[in-house]
Amino acid sequence: MKYRLFYVLCICSGLITQAQKEVEKKSSFAKSIEEGQFIYEDFCMNCHLTNGEGVAKTFPPLAKSDYLMNKRELSIKAIKFGQKGEIVVNGVKYNNVMAPLGLTDQEIADVMNYITTSWGNINKKMVTKAEVSAIEQ
Amino acid sequence: MKHFTSICIAIMITFTACAQQTESTIKAEAPPQKYESEVVVSGLSIPWGFTFLPDNSMLITEKAGELIHVKDGKKTVIEGLPDIYVRGQGGLLDIELHPDYKKNGWLYFSYASAEGEGQGGNTAIMRAKLVDAKLTEKQLLYKAGPNTRRGQHFGSRIVFDNNGYLFFSIGDRGNRDVNPQDMTKDGGKIYRIHDDGRIPKDNPFVASEGAKTAAYSYGHRNPQGMTKDPKTGAIWTNEHGPRGGDEINIIKPGKNYGWPIISYGINYSGTTFTDITAKEGMEQPLFYWVPSIAPSGMAIVDSNKYPAWKGNVLVGSLKFQYLERLELKKGKVVKREKVLEGMGRVRSVKQGPDGFIYVGIENVGIVKIIPSK
Predict the structure, then answer these.
(1) Domains of chain A and CATH, by start
(2) Domains of chain B, CATH where assigned
(3) CA of A125 vs chain B CAs: smallest distance (Å)
(4) pTM of the predicted structure, to 2 decimals
(5) How many other CB atoms are there within 10 angstroms of residue B315's CB atom?
């Protein structure tokens, strides 16, 4: 009887720890998204606009952008090192320059988490600082 | 129900009122072109500024932090730049020669610098001499403070007036409600200094306690275009509004150009930050753009190469990717036209010593406008 109680307690505490981890993970994701919004408003919004809609043929949209959704690494690369030359976003060609923004890897992760989860975009896998750091030019 | 309907209507009015703006009555036209364009320098990313040396070679600033000398099509990267703070809109910015360059060899440039107090960076003005593809005798003439990690609104344009004063612009550095209206703070201002950095004794705020005495006018958002009117010698600027409300202004000493107390613009989100477009003691723009064209670079044509354009104002549009030509009559804009449409984002424009107009276009290079015969 005593053992059974012990097992139950063990399982319970295990579950609790697991749940706590989930919450922590979620909250660090949520926190990163929140930070990312500030970065977005500071560095990105005057071209990509408030709702990530962009400007036709000049600044590609981020909202429901196939490029951003399917090309995670290239998107991070563009923010980290700048973007130059032709890209196709949602079937439209863009050929412009986005200067390197001078953001830290953490700031890049934050803004990626914000733009990949906003305006109808879905991203379940948080972008981490380590992921950004690993991407080279 | 009646109440509900009227509440609904009231709410609708409130929300639509937020986004209500009067569009510029004069629209930019795109008539058939009477000129050709030639890319004279290719392979540039963001040619923020450029100038011509006495031998007609060019010095071009790349925002990412490169100063490039181009002579007979050959590019040389100039060494010896100071540390440049490349973040957001900051980087290596404008470049200009001393009016007496042939005699004294001074060249002036603006850049974002992390020097001084606080984390981040702010706009700096430096002069130096160019010897064997290297900058020497570097002198920091002005450094705005404090530094900030905000990415916006460094301003940057440099122009000498007919009296040898050096004018430059610094934007509000993303701190709209603090900098532009406070004379004790840098940012949101046009500045005037002597060519060696000294503050002119008759600058408008020299007697104001705690004021930034290099300031010449205030209440600006982000002036990224500046030129000298070849006819009157006055300093003209253009500046970015937020959403709508880009402006052309003629700079007068001590005047308040109103940002952000008065503006024809609204927030990016569509909400308003001010209800008024005019106030006593604040200058009205010579012209304002709604919607915004995102103006950068400015020149006033005075050569004989383009008879139909004489006296016209040229302004680059980053947003719509063309060079705007504005015709004025009695100090009012009467016509707007798109030039070089579709080539790319226009960052800078200048009339060269040969009288031709040269335009810095992102991801293209420097483009010369040649009138068709």
Answers:
(1) 2-134 (1.10.760.10)
(2) 43-289 (2.120.10.30)
(3) 27
(4) 0.89
(5) 27
